[in-house]
Write a structure and sequence with these properties.
heterodimer, A: MetI-like fold, 3 domains, B: alpha/beta, binds adenosine-5'-diphosphate, binds magnesium ion
């Protein structure tokens, strides 16, 4: 080895040595670095090789995709007819088929509304954001009708449409309400603090199923008989207050980790309470709370399946209805597999997005 | 001592008037009958052992702490319990903290323009121009678009000073601005403070930098156990302290 010698005090900055590698080295380091790693790897490869072909075969190769009843499923694999034959129901529930364009348009607009929230580098972001804020109203109008559109009763809504309506409304409303509750619980005003604390503790202390029953069965008893609140509105209301109580505690955790100096610096500069919260404290607290917030979003989204117990047909409800049909009886594997995959896709997207957001924010500051 | 000559010409208008101030933290008596008048352009250095109430005192001056007895007026506005008087006082007094308290999620420039834009409703462009001038004055215009976490401690404290100056305060309060800094960064911050003093800013500095006190202070105030035990011009105070606790304190910080 002919190492260059430098005089003491004159050592230049050298480039870091390159990590050698390539795929083989990576495999060796990750999968076969010790003898027990190797054993685990080999067992896993064996299991994969023996079961993956079976699974693929059942799922795809010997599956029947388009059939009208179970008796036509003859190839021995999955009988996807239970999904495909009534696919529109999984998507829209009993929404009138001639009006499918309305939920379709609403979903398209949802993407437009999400774009400026999810990505910060969009042109004219300010105007897009104004659209995002009004989106819930537009979606309500498109889905329920009225004001020039044919009204659709909320009992007609079901399937993925209902699941997404509950999920999106729940997420969009529980975050701001959760923020207000978290701030309220830390407020200097005793009345506000007491209200927020009691609200959070009461809602958290009761199972959501109980709240749903109360909203659908008990609430109408207390209201005057001429006041009828739509069942869907009541259910959304329950989902929102339930999720906000959890959200509030997640955000309060974030608020608590902001050092006192940040409050003092914004006080000293003369910022008002709301200015200092919205410009200084919340941006930092929410960033810290991202994993918890997304966690709450994901569990809210999955909790929407509880609405089947008050007689609504969300994605899971439609699936169970299909299963109880004589022509499709006994196809639970296919139905639950399909529903699980749909939920997984949405939840996984949320989780990936939160990672992306965390990376983006941590790049900008420590 | 150009600073002192300049000051001598100025009128003796009192801008901070603290009278018979008492402050308790629960049952702990943190400030005991503190009286202090600061005239326009005057530079006060406050020193004393840790826990003697120095921070508490200057935090009372811009209403970061509430007090129970006595009165404080700043620029003729008496601090009361209402938001209005508190805001009027804070508009006149900027403050720098030991731990800088910059906003980590905003760039240096945004840190500086935030309050002018939101509190003074200044147009963004004007706020940025002013901020850039002040960042030049504290000698870090090139870091304007970095985040505080990317700067050294000394640079962060200078940003904090610039941020306060952006609100165009009449008075600056400093609470141990150099005691969280690595030794080699202390002088860059002190230089900025000396420069500020020479421009005629009214200042109250809690600091143990005796070189700084000698150079700019008109008066040094020694506190212990919540009381002002001695106040004098720096020469006399350092050469010839009268109070025993002040002697002991000085021997401790100058001794090693
Ligand atoms: N928020 C507080 N609550 C209770 N005691 C406090 C609080 N802040 C300061 N103190 C007490 O008041 C005394 C003076 O504190 P401080 O003004 O910070 O001293 P210094 O800045 O001179 O070191 C100390 O004994 C400290 O323990
Ligand atoms: Mg202190």
């Amino acid at each position: 080895m002919n190492k260059l010698q430098y005089k003491v005090g004159e050592h230049p900055n050298l480039p870091a040595p390159k990590t050698q590698g390539g795929i083989f080295k990576a495999i060796r380091n990750n999968l076969f670095s010790t003898w027990y790693d190797s054993i685990v790897t080999i067992i896993l490869i064996y299991l994969l090789l023996s079961y993956l072909p079976m699974a693929l075969d059942w799922l795809f190769f010997s599956a029947d995709f388009f059939v009208d009843k179970r008796s036509q499923c003859t190839s021995g694999g999955a009988c996807w007819g239970v999904i495909t034959a009534r696919f529109p129901q999984y998507l829209y529930g009993f929404y009138p088929p001639e009006l499918y364009w309305r939920p379709n348009l609403a979903s398209l607009l949802l993407l437009v509304a999400l774009a400026p929230i999810l990505y910060s580098k969009i042109l004219y972001r300010k105007y897009f954001l104004m659209f995002s804020i009004t989106y819930p109203l537009i979606a309500f109008w498109l889905l329920w009708g009225g004001f020039g559109l044919v009204p659709v009763e909320s009992e007609k809504m079901g399937g993925l449409l209902l699941t997404l309506t509950l999920g999106v409304m729940g997420i969009a409303l529980s975050l701001p309400i959760g923020i207000l509750l978290a701030l309220g619980r830390r407020s200097k005003m005793p009345a506000i603090r007491l209200f927020s604390t009691m609200f959070i503790e009461l809602i958290r202390g009761v199972p959501m199923i109980t709240l749903l029953f109360m909203a659908t069965v008990l609430l109408p008893l207390f209201l005057p008989s001429d006041v009828i609140i739509d069942q869907l509105i009541r259910v959304i209301f329950i989902i929102v207050i339930f999720a906000s109580a959890y959200m509030a505690e997640v955000i309060r955790g974030g608020l608590q980790s902001i050092r006192k100096g940040q409050y003092e610096a914004s006080d000293v500069m003369g910022l008002s309470y709301w200015q200092s919260m919205s410009l200084i404290i919340l941006p930092q607290a929410l960033k810290i709370s991202i994993p918890g917030i997304v966690n709450s979003f994901i569990s809210l989204f999955k909790d929407t399946t509880l609405v089947i117990i008050v007689g609504m047909f969300d994605l899971l409800g439609v699936g169970r209805a299909a299963l109880s049909n004589r022509e499709w009886i006994g196809l639970a594997n296919e139905v639950y597999m399909f529903i699980a995959i749909v939920f997984f896709v949405f939840c996984y997207l949320m989780s990936r997005y939160s990672l992306h957001l965390e990376r983006r924010l941590s790049r900008s500051y420590k | 001592m150009s600073v002192k000559k300049a000051k001598a010409k100025k009128s003796k208008e009192v801008v901070i008037d603290i009278k018979e101030l008492h402050k308790w933290y629960d049952s702990f008596h943190a400030l005991k009958n503190v009286n202090l008048q600061v005239t326009k352009g005057e530079k006060i250095v406050v020193c004393g052992p840790s826990g003697s109430g120095k921070s508490t005192l200057i935090r009372c001056v811009n209403a970061l702490e509430q007090f129970q007895q006595g009165s404080i007026s700043v620029g003729g506005v008496e601090i009361k319990d209402d938001i209005k008087s508190i805001n009027a006082v804070r508009a006149q007094a900027g403050m720098c903290f030991q731990h800088f308290n910059l906003f980590p999620h905003l760039t240096v420039l945004e840190n500086c323009t935030l309050a002018p834009i939101w509190v003074k409703k200044m147009p963004k462009k004007q706020a940025e121009e002013i901020a850039m001038k002040l960042l030049e004055r504290v000698k870090i215009p090139n870091e304007a678009n970095k985040f505080p976490g990317q700067l050294s401690g000394g640079q962060q404290q200078r940003v904090a000073i610039a941020r306060s100056l952006c609100m165009n305060p009449d008075i600056m309060l400093f609470d141990e601005p150099t005691s969280a800094l690595d030794p080699e960064m202390i002088s860059e911050v002190l230089d900025v403070m000396v420069d500020l003093a020479e421009q005629g800013m009214t200042m109250i500095c809690v600091t143990h930098e005796m070189g700084f006190a000698r150079r700019v202070a008109d008066r040094v105030i020694f506190m212990d156990h919540g009381e002002i035990l001695e106040q004098n011009d720096p020469e006399t105070f350092f050469k010839n302290p009268k109070n025993d606790r002040a002697k002991e304190f000085l021997s401790q910080i100058l001794g090693h």
